[in-house]
UniProtKB/TrEMBL annotation:
Protein name: Cytochrome P450
PROSITE patterns xref list: CYTOCHROME_P450 (PS00086)
Signal sequence, renumbered to the chain: none
Listed cofactors: heme
Highest rank taxon of the organism: Bacteria
Cited Pfam families: p450
Native source organism of the sequence: Fibrella aquatilis
PANTHER family noted in UniProt: BIFUNCTIONAL ALBAFLAVENONE MONOOXYGENASE_TERPENE SYNTHASE, CYTOCHROME P450 FAMILY 4
GO MF annotation, one: heme binding
Tagged with keyword Metal-binding: yes
Protein backbone atom coordinates (compact mmCIF):
# COMPACT_ATOMS: atom_id res chain seq x y z
CA UNK A 1 0.00 0.00 0.00
CA UNK A 2 1.36 3.41 -0.97
CA UNK A 3 0.71 6.37 1.34
CA UNK A 4 1.57 10.06 1.36
CA UNK A 5 4.47 10.89 3.67
CA UNK A 6 3.65 13.10 6.67
CA UNK A 7 4.21 16.80 5.97
CA UNK A 8 5.81 19.00 8.60
CA UNK A 9 3.78 22.22 8.92
CA UNK A 10 5.48 25.37 7.66
CA UNK A 11 4.74 28.97 6.71
CA UNK A 12 2.98 30.01 3.49
CA UNK A 13 5.46 30.49 0.63
CA UNK A 14 8.66 29.92 2.66
CA UNK A 15 7.60 26.56 4.06
CA UNK A 16 10.26 25.33 6.53
CA UNK A 17 13.12 27.36 5.02
CA UNK A 18 13.60 29.74 7.94
CA UNK A 19 13.48 27.07 10.64
CA UNK A 20 16.05 24.97 8.78
CA UNK A 21 18.28 27.99 8.03
CA UNK A 22 18.21 29.05 11.71
CA UNK A 23 19.33 25.72 13.14
CA UNK A 24 19.62 22.91 10.59
CA UNK A 25 20.92 20.24 12.98
CA UNK A 26 18.45 21.08 15.76
CA UNK A 27 15.56 21.12 13.30
CA UNK A 28 16.60 17.84 11.64
CA UNK A 29 16.96 16.11 15.01
CA UNK A 30 13.55 17.35 16.06
CA UNK A 31 12.03 16.00 12.84
CA UNK A 32 13.75 12.65 13.34
CA UNK A 33 12.30 12.32 16.86
CA UNK A 34 8.86 13.39 15.72
CA UNK A 35 8.49 11.38 12.51
CA UNK A 36 10.80 8.40 12.96
CA UNK A 37 10.93 7.21 9.32
CA UNK A 38 10.15 9.79 6.59
CA UNK A 39 8.88 13.38 6.61
CA UNK A 40 8.30 15.92 3.87
CA UNK A 41 9.51 19.46 4.41
CA UNK A 42 9.69 22.40 2.05
CA UNK A 43 12.89 24.38 1.61
CA UNK A 44 13.21 27.20 -0.91
CA UNK A 45 10.00 26.12 -2.64
CA UNK A 46 11.17 22.52 -3.15
CA UNK A 47 9.71 19.45 -1.51
CA UNK A 48 12.35 17.47 0.31
CA UNK A 49 11.86 14.07 1.88
CA UNK A 50 14.01 13.40 4.90
CA UNK A 51 14.79 9.72 5.35
CA UNK A 52 15.90 8.60 8.81
CA UNK A 53 16.31 4.82 8.88
CA UNK A 54 19.49 3.03 7.74
CA UNK A 55 17.55 0.53 5.61
CA UNK A 56 15.80 3.36 3.72
CA UNK A 57 19.08 5.23 3.25
CA UNK A 58 20.55 2.02 1.84
CA UNK A 59 17.61 1.79 -0.54
CA UNK A 60 18.21 5.31 -1.91
CA UNK A 61 22.01 5.23 -2.12
CA UNK A 62 22.47 1.62 -3.15
CA UNK A 63 19.52 -0.62 -3.95
CA UNK A 64 17.63 1.81 -6.18
CA UNK A 65 20.45 4.29 -6.82
CA UNK A 66 19.65 4.51 -10.53
CA UNK A 67 16.47 6.36 -9.66
CA UNK A 68 18.28 8.98 -7.58
CA UNK A 69 20.40 11.53 -9.43
CA UNK A 70 22.32 14.61 -8.39
CA UNK A 71 20.00 17.19 -6.77
CA UNK A 72 19.78 20.81 -8.05
CA UNK A 73 22.40 21.89 -5.45
CA UNK A 74 25.04 20.17 -7.57
CA UNK A 75 24.14 22.29 -10.59
CA UNK A 76 25.49 25.36 -8.76
CA UNK A 77 28.75 23.54 -8.13
CA UNK A 78 29.18 22.74 -11.82
CA UNK A 79 30.30 26.30 -12.49
CA UNK A 80 33.32 25.61 -10.27
CA UNK A 81 33.92 21.91 -10.78
CA UNK A 82 32.70 21.41 -14.34
CA UNK A 83 31.75 17.84 -15.22
CA UNK A 84 33.98 16.20 -12.60
CA UNK A 85 33.09 13.10 -10.59
CA UNK A 86 31.22 14.94 -7.87
CA UNK A 87 28.83 16.86 -10.11
CA UNK A 88 28.31 14.60 -13.14
CA UNK A 89 25.59 12.00 -13.44
CA UNK A 90 24.31 9.00 -15.42
CA UNK A 91 26.40 7.24 -18.07
CA UNK A 92 28.95 10.06 -18.24
CA UNK A 93 29.64 9.75 -14.49
CA UNK A 94 29.81 5.93 -14.71
CA UNK A 95 32.41 6.15 -17.47
CA UNK A 96 34.50 8.69 -15.56
CA UNK A 97 34.29 6.72 -12.33
CA UNK A 98 35.55 3.58 -14.11
CA UNK A 99 38.48 5.55 -15.50
CA UNK A 100 39.39 7.21 -12.19
CA UNK A 101 38.81 4.26 -9.85
CA UNK A 102 42.20 2.54 -10.40
CA UNK A 103 43.99 5.71 -9.24
CA UNK A 104 42.49 5.09 -5.78
CA UNK A 105 43.40 1.41 -5.59
CA UNK A 106 45.07 0.37 -2.31
CA UNK A 107 48.45 -0.06 -4.00
CA UNK A 108 48.29 3.38 -5.57
CA UNK A 109 47.30 4.89 -2.22
CA UNK A 110 50.45 3.37 -0.73
CA UNK A 111 52.49 5.26 -3.32
CA UNK A 112 50.67 8.50 -2.56
CA UNK A 113 51.03 7.82 1.16
CA UNK A 114 54.82 8.36 0.97
CA UNK A 115 54.08 11.93 -0.15
CA UNK A 116 51.61 12.25 2.75
CA UNK A 117 54.25 11.08 5.25
CA UNK A 118 56.88 13.49 3.86
CA UNK A 119 54.54 16.49 3.86
CA UNK A 120 53.05 15.68 7.28
CA UNK A 121 56.46 15.14 8.90
CA UNK A 122 57.80 18.40 7.43
CA UNK A 123 54.73 20.22 8.74
CA UNK A 124 55.05 18.71 12.24
CA UNK A 125 58.77 19.65 12.30
CA UNK A 126 57.83 23.20 11.34
CA UNK A 127 55.26 23.33 14.14
CA UNK A 128 57.90 22.12 16.61
CA UNK A 129 60.28 24.86 15.54
CA UNK A 130 57.57 27.53 15.72
CA UNK A 131 56.53 29.58 18.72
CA UNK A 132 54.66 27.22 21.06
CA UNK A 133 54.48 29.64 23.98
CA UNK A 134 50.96 30.67 22.92
CA UNK A 135 48.03 28.68 21.52
CA UNK A 136 48.11 27.36 17.95
CA UNK A 137 45.24 27.75 15.49
CA UNK A 138 44.84 24.07 14.62
CA UNK A 139 41.94 24.68 12.22
CA UNK A 140 44.11 26.93 10.05
CA UNK A 141 47.24 24.82 10.38
CA UNK A 142 45.33 21.70 9.29
CA UNK A 143 43.76 23.52 6.31
CA UNK A 144 47.30 24.45 5.22
CA UNK A 145 48.77 20.98 5.52
CA UNK A 146 45.85 19.13 3.89
CA UNK A 147 45.99 21.62 1.03
CA UNK A 148 49.70 20.93 0.52
CA UNK A 149 49.06 17.20 0.64
CA UNK A 150 46.27 17.24 -1.91
CA UNK A 151 48.23 19.53 -4.27
CA UNK A 152 51.38 17.41 -3.97
CA UNK A 153 49.55 14.12 -4.47
CA UNK A 154 47.78 15.58 -7.50
CA UNK A 155 50.62 17.42 -9.21
CA UNK A 156 53.80 16.42 -7.30
CA UNK A 157 56.91 18.03 -8.67
CA UNK A 158 55.14 20.08 -11.34
CA UNK A 159 53.67 22.23 -8.64
CA UNK A 160 57.14 22.90 -7.19
CA UNK A 161 57.51 26.53 -6.23
CA UNK A 162 54.16 27.31 -7.80
CA UNK A 163 52.44 25.23 -5.13
CA UNK A 164 51.56 28.26 -3.00
CA UNK A 165 50.07 30.20 -5.93
CA UNK A 166 48.14 27.18 -7.16
CA UNK A 167 46.74 26.24 -3.78
CA UNK A 168 45.80 29.85 -3.13
CA UNK A 169 43.82 30.09 -6.39
CA UNK A 170 42.19 26.69 -5.87
CA UNK A 171 41.23 27.71 -2.35
CA UNK A 172 39.69 30.94 -3.71
CA UNK A 173 37.52 28.83 -6.06
CA UNK A 174 36.61 26.59 -3.14
CA UNK A 175 35.59 29.50 -0.90
CA UNK A 176 33.55 31.09 -3.70
CA UNK A 177 31.83 27.77 -4.48
CA UNK A 178 30.87 27.51 -0.79
CA UNK A 179 29.58 31.09 -0.74
CA UNK A 180 27.55 30.69 -3.92
CA UNK A 181 25.99 27.44 -2.79
CA UNK A 182 24.94 28.85 0.56
CA UNK A 183 23.80 32.26 -0.70
CA UNK A 184 20.03 32.64 -1.26
CA UNK A 185 20.71 35.06 -4.16
CA UNK A 186 22.50 33.69 -7.21
CA UNK A 187 23.81 36.68 -9.21
CA UNK A 188 24.16 36.12 -12.97
CA UNK A 189 27.65 34.80 -13.62
CA UNK A 190 28.46 37.43 -16.26
CA UNK A 191 27.81 40.41 -13.94
CA UNK A 192 31.02 42.08 -12.72
CA UNK A 193 30.26 41.49 -9.01
CA UNK A 194 33.36 41.35 -6.76
CA UNK A 195 32.92 37.59 -6.37
CA UNK A 196 32.59 37.05 -10.12
CA UNK A 197 35.75 39.08 -10.73
CA UNK A 198 37.66 37.07 -8.08
CA UNK A 199 36.26 33.86 -9.52
CA UNK A 200 37.34 34.71 -13.07
CA UNK A 201 40.87 35.66 -11.94
CA UNK A 202 41.32 32.54 -9.81
CA UNK A 203 39.89 30.33 -12.53
CA UNK A 204 42.22 31.80 -15.16
CA UNK A 205 45.22 31.08 -12.91
CA UNK A 206 44.13 27.56 -12.01
CA UNK A 207 43.39 26.68 -15.62
CA UNK A 208 46.65 28.13 -16.92
CA UNK A 209 48.64 26.08 -14.38
CA UNK A 210 46.75 22.82 -14.78
CA UNK A 211 46.66 22.97 -18.59
CA UNK A 212 50.37 23.87 -18.45
CA UNK A 213 51.16 20.75 -16.38
CA UNK A 214 49.16 18.57 -18.78
CA UNK A 215 50.80 20.01 -21.89
CA UNK A 216 54.25 19.64 -20.38
CA UNK A 217 53.69 16.01 -19.43
CA UNK A 218 52.29 15.18 -22.85
CA UNK A 219 55.24 16.86 -24.55
CA UNK A 220 57.97 15.26 -22.46
CA UNK A 221 56.28 11.93 -21.67
CA UNK A 222 57.75 12.16 -18.13
CA UNK A 223 55.95 9.92 -15.63
CA UNK A 224 55.24 10.84 -11.98
CA UNK A 225 53.85 9.09 -8.90
CA UNK A 226 50.81 11.30 -8.60
CA UNK A 227 47.09 11.46 -9.36
CA UNK A 228 47.46 13.61 -12.46
CA UNK A 229 49.70 10.93 -13.97
CA UNK A 230 47.19 8.20 -13.17
CA UNK A 231 44.31 10.18 -14.68
CA UNK A 232 46.35 11.23 -17.70
CA UNK A 233 47.18 7.63 -18.61
CA UNK A 234 43.82 6.05 -17.64
CA UNK A 235 42.36 4.33 -20.71
CA UNK A 236 38.82 3.31 -21.55
CA UNK A 237 38.72 -0.51 -21.57
CA UNK A 238 36.75 -0.72 -24.80
CA UNK A 239 38.02 2.19 -26.89
CA UNK A 240 41.50 2.73 -25.41
CA UNK A 241 40.70 6.46 -25.30
CA UNK A 242 42.09 8.79 -22.64
CA UNK A 243 40.43 11.77 -20.97
CA UNK A 244 40.39 15.04 -22.92
CA UNK A 245 42.34 17.90 -21.27
CA UNK A 246 39.22 19.79 -20.17
CA UNK A 247 38.00 16.66 -18.37
CA UNK A 248 41.36 16.21 -16.67
CA UNK A 249 41.13 19.79 -15.47
CA UNK A 250 37.63 19.24 -14.06
CA UNK A 251 38.70 16.06 -12.25
CA UNK A 252 41.75 17.74 -10.73
CA UNK A 253 39.74 20.69 -9.40
CA UNK A 254 37.08 18.27 -8.11
CA UNK A 255 39.62 16.12 -6.25
CA UNK A 256 41.14 19.20 -4.67
CA UNK A 257 37.75 20.56 -3.57
CA UNK A 258 36.27 17.26 -2.39
CA UNK A 259 39.45 16.13 -0.70
CA UNK A 260 40.91 19.00 1.21
CA UNK A 261 38.39 20.81 3.40
CA UNK A 262 36.64 17.56 4.45
CA UNK A 263 39.90 16.11 5.73
CA UNK A 264 41.03 19.33 7.42
CA UNK A 265 37.74 19.78 9.23
CA UNK A 266 37.66 16.17 10.38
CA UNK A 267 41.21 16.40 11.70
CA UNK A 268 40.40 19.63 13.57
CA UNK A 269 37.46 17.90 15.29
CA UNK A 270 39.67 14.94 16.13
CA UNK A 271 42.26 17.18 17.80
CA UNK A 272 39.53 18.95 19.73
CA UNK A 273 38.07 15.65 20.94
CA UNK A 274 41.48 14.35 22.00
CA UNK A 275 42.31 17.55 23.87
CA UNK A 276 38.99 17.15 25.72
CA UNK A 277 39.62 13.46 26.52
CA UNK A 278 43.14 13.09 27.99
CA UNK A 279 42.77 9.36 28.80
CA UNK A 280 41.97 8.58 25.15
CA UNK A 281 44.87 10.77 24.02
CA UNK A 282 47.22 8.85 26.36
CA UNK A 283 46.06 5.50 24.98
CA UNK A 284 46.57 6.75 21.45
CA UNK A 285 50.05 8.06 22.25
CA UNK A 286 50.96 4.68 23.75
CA UNK A 287 49.93 2.87 20.57
CA UNK A 288 51.82 5.34 18.38
CA UNK A 289 54.94 5.10 20.57
CA UNK A 290 54.87 1.30 20.33
CA UNK A 291 54.74 1.36 16.53
CA UNK A 292 56.61 4.54 15.56
CA UNK A 293 58.77 5.16 18.62
CA UNK A 294 58.67 8.24 20.85
CA UNK A 295 59.25 11.86 19.89
CA UNK A 296 60.55 13.23 16.62
CA UNK A 297 63.21 11.24 14.80
CA UNK A 298 65.47 12.05 11.86
CA UNK A 299 64.23 9.24 9.59
CA UNK A 300 60.66 8.99 8.33
CA UNK A 301 58.58 5.98 9.39
CA UNK A 302 57.71 3.62 6.51
CA UNK A 303 54.18 3.91 5.11
CA UNK A 304 53.34 0.35 6.18
CA UNK A 305 53.84 1.31 9.85
CA UNK A 306 50.78 3.55 9.65
CA UNK A 307 48.65 0.59 8.60
CA UNK A 308 49.31 -1.11 11.94
CA UNK A 309 47.72 1.52 14.17
CA UNK A 310 44.27 0.07 14.92
CA UNK A 311 43.41 2.38 17.81
CA UNK A 312 44.44 5.43 15.75
CA UNK A 313 41.97 4.28 13.11
CA UNK A 314 39.24 3.80 15.74
CA UNK A 315 39.79 7.38 16.97
CA UNK A 316 39.43 8.70 13.42
CA UNK A 317 36.28 6.63 12.82
CA UNK A 318 34.66 7.73 16.07
CA UNK A 319 35.52 11.37 15.42
CA UNK A 320 33.80 11.12 12.01
CA UNK A 321 30.81 9.49 13.68
CA UNK A 322 30.33 12.45 16.01
CA UNK A 323 31.21 15.07 13.40
CA UNK A 324 30.77 13.69 9.87
CA UNK A 325 32.20 16.39 7.58
CA UNK A 326 29.58 15.53 4.92
CA UNK A 327 26.68 15.92 7.33
CA UNK A 328 23.88 15.74 4.72
CA UNK A 329 23.53 14.47 1.17
CA UNK A 330 20.74 14.95 -1.28
CA UNK A 331 19.39 13.18 -4.35
CA UNK A 332 16.61 13.92 -6.85
CA UNK A 333 14.03 11.24 -7.70
CA UNK A 334 14.21 10.65 -11.46
CA UNK A 335 10.89 8.76 -11.53
CA UNK A 336 8.02 8.21 -9.08
CA UNK A 337 9.08 5.78 -6.39
CA UNK A 338 8.26 4.77 -2.85
CA UNK A 339 10.40 4.39 0.24
CA UNK A 340 8.75 1.77 2.39
CA UNK A 341 5.08 2.65 1.96
CA UNK A 342 5.76 6.36 1.34
CA UNK A 343 5.33 7.84 -2.11
CA UNK A 344 8.26 9.86 -3.52
CA UNK A 345 7.19 11.86 -6.60
CA UNK A 346 9.49 12.36 -9.57
CA UNK A 347 11.52 15.61 -9.30
CA UNK A 348 11.41 15.85 -5.51
CA UNK A 349 14.55 15.71 -3.38
CA UNK A 350 15.49 13.05 -0.85
CA UNK A 351 17.81 14.09 1.97
CA UNK A 352 19.89 11.70 4.05
CA UNK A 353 21.94 12.91 6.95
CA UNK A 354 24.96 10.99 8.23
CA UNK A 355 24.86 13.30 11.25
CA UNK A 356 21.39 12.07 12.22
CA UNK A 357 22.22 8.43 11.54
CA UNK A 358 25.40 8.74 13.63
CA UNK A 359 23.53 10.20 16.59
CA UNK A 360 20.58 7.83 16.56
CA UNK A 361 20.47 6.15 20.01
CA UNK A 362 18.90 3.04 18.44
CA UNK A 363 22.27 2.13 16.96
CA UNK A 364 24.60 4.28 19.07
CA UNK A 365 23.89 4.10 22.82
CA UNK A 366 24.79 7.36 24.60
CA UNK A 367 25.36 8.87 21.15
CA UNK A 368 27.11 12.10 22.21
CA UNK A 369 29.88 10.31 24.11
CA UNK A 370 33.29 10.09 22.40
CA UNK A 371 34.20 6.41 22.62
CA UNK A 372 36.58 4.99 19.99
CA UNK A 373 35.88 1.48 21.33
CA UNK A 374 32.62 1.55 19.38
CA UNK A 375 34.88 0.65 16.45
CA UNK A 376 36.91 -2.04 18.23
CA UNK A 377 36.98 -5.39 16.39
CA UNK A 378 33.59 -7.08 16.75
CA UNK A 379 31.90 -4.05 18.35
CA UNK A 380 29.79 -3.48 15.24
CA UNK A 381 27.90 -6.79 15.56
CA UNK A 382 24.21 -6.12 14.96
CA UNK A 383 24.77 -2.55 13.77
CA UNK A 384 23.16 -1.91 10.36
CA UNK A 385 25.73 -1.08 7.66
CA UNK A 386 24.08 2.23 6.81
CA UNK A 387 24.05 3.40 10.43
CA UNK A 388 27.54 4.75 9.73
CA UNK A 389 28.34 6.51 6.48
CA UNK A 390 30.89 9.30 6.73
CA UNK A 391 31.87 8.58 3.12
CA UNK A 392 28.35 8.00 1.76
CA UNK A 393 27.36 4.66 0.28
CA UNK A 394 26.48 2.72 -2.86
CA UNK A 395 28.17 3.37 -6.20
CA UNK A 396 28.78 7.03 -5.33
CA UNK A 397 30.73 6.18 -2.22
CA UNK A 398 33.56 8.69 -1.76
CA UNK A 399 36.31 7.68 -4.19
CA UNK A 400 38.88 9.21 -1.83
CA UNK A 401 37.85 7.33 1.32
CA UNK A 402 41.02 5.21 1.59
CA UNK A 403 43.11 8.23 0.69
CA UNK A 404 41.45 10.29 3.45
CA UNK A 405 41.71 7.57 6.11
CA UNK A 406 45.39 7.05 5.33
CA UNK A 407 46.06 10.78 5.44
CA UNK A 408 44.26 11.22 8.75
CA UNK A 409 46.05 8.28 10.35
CA UNK A 410 49.41 9.67 9.27
CA UNK A 411 48.70 13.23 10.40
CA UNK A 412 47.20 12.14 13.68
CA UNK A 413 49.96 9.67 14.56
CA UNK A 414 52.71 12.18 13.81
CA UNK A 415 50.95 14.94 15.72
CA UNK A 416 50.33 13.01 18.93
CA UNK A 417 53.78 11.46 18.72
CA UNK A 418 55.28 14.95 18.79
CA UNK A 419 52.90 16.89 21.00
CA UNK A 420 50.78 16.83 24.10
CA UNK A 421 47.68 18.88 23.44
CA UNK A 422 45.41 20.91 25.69
CA UNK A 423 42.33 23.07 25.28
CA UNK A 424 42.89 26.73 26.02
CA UNK A 425 39.50 27.26 27.66
CA UNK A 426 36.39 25.34 28.57
CA UNK A 427 34.14 27.14 26.11
CA UNK A 428 32.16 24.54 24.16
CA UNK A 429 32.64 24.31 20.42
CA UNK A 430 29.55 23.47 18.42
CA UNK A 431 29.14 22.04 14.95
CA UNK A 432 28.20 24.56 12.29
CA UNK A 433 26.59 22.87 9.30
CA UNK A 434 27.85 24.71 6.21
CA UNK A 435 28.77 22.56 3.21
CA UNK A 436 31.03 20.66 5.58
CA UNK A 437 30.32 20.34 9.29
CA UNK A 438 32.80 22.89 10.59
CA UNK A 439 33.47 23.84 14.21
CA UNK A 440 31.61 27.11 14.91
CA UNK A 441 34.93 28.83 15.60
CA UNK A 442 38.55 28.02 14.92
CA UNK A 443 40.04 25.43 17.23
CA UNK A 444 43.00 26.84 19.16
CA UNK A 445 45.08 24.40 21.17
CA UNK A 446 48.14 24.55 23.37
CA UNK A 447 50.82 22.23 21.97
CA UNK A 448 53.69 21.04 24.17
CA UNK A 449 56.55 19.33 22.36
CA UNK A 450 57.23 15.81 23.67
CA UNK A 451 60.81 14.69 23.93
C1 LIG B 1 37.35 12.97 5.68
C2 LIG B 1 37.41 13.16 4.40
C3 LIG B 1 36.29 12.94 3.41
C4 LIG B 1 34.95 12.79 3.63
C5 LIG B 1 34.21 12.80 4.96
C6 LIG B 1 34.33 12.62 2.34
C7 LIG B 1 32.97 12.40 2.15
C8 LIG B 1 32.39 12.15 0.92
C9 LIG B 1 31.00 11.78 0.73
C10 LIG B 1 29.97 11.62 1.83
C11 LIG B 1 30.80 11.62 -0.61
C12 LIG B 1 29.50 11.20 -1.28
C13 LIG B 1 28.63 12.36 -1.64
C14 LIG B 1 27.29 11.91 -2.20
O1 LIG B 1 27.03 10.71 -2.33
O2 LIG B 1 26.48 12.79 -2.48
C15 LIG B 1 32.06 11.92 -1.28
C16 LIG B 1 32.26 11.88 -2.63
C17 LIG B 1 33.45 12.17 -3.24
N1 LIG B 1 34.66 12.38 -2.61
FE1 LIG B 1 35.00 12.40 -0.64
N2 LIG B 1 35.30 12.67 1.37
C18 LIG B 1 36.51 12.86 1.98
C19 LIG B 1 37.74 12.91 1.37
C20 LIG B 1 37.96 12.85 0.03
C21 LIG B 1 39.24 12.87 -0.61
C22 LIG B 1 40.57 12.93 0.13
C23 LIG B 1 39.03 12.86 -1.96
C24 LIG B 1 40.00 12.87 -3.10
C25 LIG B 1 41.30 12.92 -3.00
C26 LIG B 1 37.59 12.82 -2.17
C27 LIG B 1 36.96 12.81 -3.39
C28 LIG B 1 35.61 12.60 -3.58
C29 LIG B 1 34.98 12.53 -4.89
C30 LIG B 1 35.67 12.73 -6.25
C31 LIG B 1 33.63 12.25 -4.68
C32 LIG B 1 32.54 12.03 -5.75
C33 LIG B 1 32.53 10.55 -6.05
C34 LIG B 1 31.48 10.14 -7.07
O3 LIG B 1 30.35 10.63 -7.01
O4 LIG B 1 31.83 9.29 -7.89
N3 LIG B 1 36.97 12.79 -0.93
N4 LIG B 1 33.02 12.21 -0.31
Amino acid sequence: MEIIAPVHPGWPLVGNTLAVARDPLGMFMKLQRQYDRVVRINIGGRNQYMVFRPEDVKYVLQENHRNYGRSPAFRVLKRFLGEGLLTSDGDFWRHQRRLAQPAFHRQKITVLASTMVEESAAWVAQLRQGDLSGPVNMSQALMDVTMRIVCKTLFSTDAGQRLDGLSHSLETLNVLANKTLLSPIKWPTNWPTPNNVRYNNARRQVDALIYGFIANRKRTGTRHDDLLDMLLYAEDEDTGQRMPDAQLRDECVTLFTAGHETTAVSMAWTMYLLASHPAILKRLQTEVATVLGTGASESLPPVEAFRTLPYTMQVVQESMRLYPPAWAMSRMALADDHIGPFRIPKGDTVVVSPYLLHHDPTNWPDPDRFDPDRFAPGADAGRPAYAYLPFGGGPRLCIGNQFALMEMQILLALLVQSFDIQLIDGKPIRPQPLITLRPNRHIWLRLTARL
